[in-house]
Predict the structure.
Amino acid sequence: MIGRFLPVVALCLATACGGGPSTPQTPKVDPHALMYSGVETVAALWSAAASACISAAEQSGDDSIRQKCADVLLPAHDTILAAADAVDTWTLADQNNLPCLLKSAAAAVTQAAALPFMPPGTARLRDGLALAGALSATCTATDGGAR
Amino acid sequence: MNWATLLPLIISAIEAAPQLVGAIEKLIAAFKSGGADAARAALLEPELQNAMAAADQALQTPIQKR
């Protein structure tokens, strides 16, 4: 009796019977872990951008380079620290605020990276900004970019 | 928090940002040595904050004054 059903069972297993097409699923990610990764990634990108700016300014002796970077990056410094604190405390308000904090910080890094004296963008920069973009997608224009 | 709850977090974080493997390793080390509280405290990387503070200071200091 059981032997009669074995081919059916085997066929089901081979064709993902009853479960629909077996396409890869996006893994379910813990929001805190994801935001932690996003904030630390943007912080690392900010630090790298600031270092590149300072190196360019020092090598050329041109303080206007430092000033241009400072105009873009200094406001984002406090934004990143606020985002890091929000990940640490993780209240509901923090969780709502984080996407816009990330968006604001990532925008500053993007702007700094586009300055003419900056080195070419790296894969790390591209991937990090992509991660920040995905995590800040819920921050809409009506939010003002940062709260 | 135990390993059963920590492990999915670690895997998720690595999948989300592979470049953070080093940070995740520190998180595991902190958890092994001090439990969940130590792991929580390790979430903010002191080295990164120090680097940011140094860069912040450098951005505010004119080149000619160094």
